[in-house]
Amino acid sequence: MRVADVLSLLAAGAGEAEILEDYPYLTAADIRACLAYAAAQADHAVLLAS
After folding, report:
1. ∠ at Cα 13 (4, 28), nearest 5°?
2. Cβ distance 35 to 4 under 8 Å?
3. Environment class of 38 (CB within 10 Å of its CB; exposed 0-12, middle 13-18, buried 19+)
4. What letter would DSSP give residue 25?
């Protein structure tokens, strides 16, 4: 399962427990890792033009 798949499930309103029940090969740590990855991707430098 891709990170994007997990994030899409979360964005659609699925809770952690629901995801873990539907995809038993995932762990709570996997879901947290997906969220951490998404946060890191969204954290970028902002450059101001002068």
Report:
1. 65
2. no
3. middle
4. T
d(CA 21, CA 27): 10
What is the token pair recorded at 45? 């430098």
User: 7-48 pLDDT, tens per residue?
Assistant: 999 999 999 999 999 999 999 999 999 999 999 998 877 888
H or E stretch including 19?
helix 16-22
Give the count of beta carbons closer than 10 Å to the beta carbon of residue 5.
12
**The pTM is what?**
0.83
Contact 17, 7 (CB under 8 A): no
Q: What angle, rounded to 10 degrees, do the helices at 28-42 and 3-11 form?
A: 90
